[in-house]
């Protein structure tokens, strides 16, 4: 009888200890679970913080540069094709030599830099010469753009704005997503260009006609920014698109990002090392 009572008492004590241990375990941090949560958080951050290249274009005098400045003011890095185009025409550069050879030394200033105004008059009035200029400079501009993007990629930027007036003409929209077009109506565009460059209506219209029609660009665009109103209106329209350009990226965009390249490299390296170990065991 005593043995039976002792056995029951022992079992009760054991049950009490088990319940107490369970309560204590519930009140203390589960280090394994915490580690898994950290791992999950890291994987999410690593896989979803990716790089997106956003294409930004428009017509001449549509206000694209103003939109570019809004992106800069909001902390987005911008690669400006116009800046690169000016650089590739600097005295002594490869682009400079090609252009001088094709158009002659008459397009040079006294300091031997290219007279951009004079060159512009030549090419905007002659489609064949404009195509020649674009063909000569395209490789240098493309290289400059990709080099700037690569440097930002190395730094780990998640979103890059690619400001290219000839985004569709140069077929660079294949590398960008989404593509944004800044739009104004033709009459406003003509007036703004005449006022900005202090030029005649005919000259301004020739420069507009030298570019792809805005309506065609709009048909290709993912996002259109209406810039027919005031600067305050433009700012409001800009705020509306920020959510669209910062949405989660696709897997294709991820594999083109720095993180994706690292994952691919590690995966390949791990596979090769694993295969070598497997062969060593055979």
Automatic annotation (TrEMBL):
Which Pfam families does UniProt cross-reference here?
CoaE
**Pathway in which this enzyme or protein is active:** Cofactor biosynthesis; coenzyme A biosynthesis; CoA from (R)-pantothenate: step 5/5
Lineage top rank: taxon: Eukaryota
Q: Name one GO biological process term.
A: coenzyme A biosynthetic process
* Entry keywords, A to Z: ATP-binding, Nucleotide-binding
State the CDD domains in the record: DPCK
Q: Name one GO molecular function term.
A: dephospho-CoA kinase activity
Q: What are the EC numbers?
A: 2.7.1.24
Which Gene3D superfamilies does this entry report, sorted A to Z?
P-loop containing nucleotide triphosphate hydrolases (3.40.50.300)
Does the keyword Electron transport feature in the UniProt annotation? no
* A cellular component term, taken from the record's GO annotations: cytoplasm
The cross-references to InterPro entries, in alphabetical order and at most eight, read: Depp_CoAkinase, P-loop_NTPase
Family affiliation: Belongs to the CoaE family.
Q: What does this protein do?
A: Catalyzes the phosphorylation of the 3'-hydroxyl group of dephosphocoenzyme A to form coenzyme A.
Protein name as catalogued:
Dephospho-CoA kinase
Q: Which organism is it from?
A: Ambrosia artemisiifolia (Common ragweed)
């Amino acid at each position: 009888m005593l043995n039976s009572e002792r056995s029951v008492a022992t079992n009760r004590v054991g049950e009490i200890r088990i319940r107490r241990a369970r309560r204590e375990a519930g009140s203390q941090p589960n280090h394994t679970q915490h580690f898994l949560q950290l791992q999950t958080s890291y994987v999410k951050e690593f896989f979803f913080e990716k790089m997106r290249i956003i294409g930004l274009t428009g017509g001449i005098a549509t206000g694209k540069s103003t939109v570019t400045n809004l992106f800069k003011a909001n902390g987005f890095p911008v690669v400006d094709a116009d800046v690169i185009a000016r650089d590739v025409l600097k005295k002594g550069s490869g682009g400079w030599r090609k252009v001088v050879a094709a158009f002659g030394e008459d397009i040079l200033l006294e300091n031997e830099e290219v007279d951009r105004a004079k060159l512009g008059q030549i090419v905007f009035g002659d489609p064949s010469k404009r195509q020649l200029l674009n063909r000569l400079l395209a490789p240098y501009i493309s290289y400059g753009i990709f080099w700037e993007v690569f440097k930002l990629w190395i730094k780990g930027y998640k979103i890059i704005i690619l400001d290219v007036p000839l985004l569709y003409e140069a077929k660079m929209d294949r590398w960008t997503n989404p593509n944004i077009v800044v739009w104004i109506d033709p009459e406003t565009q003509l007036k703004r260009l005449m006022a900005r460059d202090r030029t005649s209506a005919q000259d301004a219209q020739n420069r507009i006609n030298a570019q792809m029609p805005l309506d065609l660009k709009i048909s290709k665009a993912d996002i259109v920014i209406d810039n027919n109103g005031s600067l305050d209106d433009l700012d409001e329209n800009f705020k509306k698109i920020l959510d669209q350009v910062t949405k989660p990226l696709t897997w294709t965009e991820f594999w083109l990002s720095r993180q994706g390249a690292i994952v691919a490299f590690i995966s390949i390296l791990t596979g090769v090392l694993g295969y070598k170990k497997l062969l060593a065991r055979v």
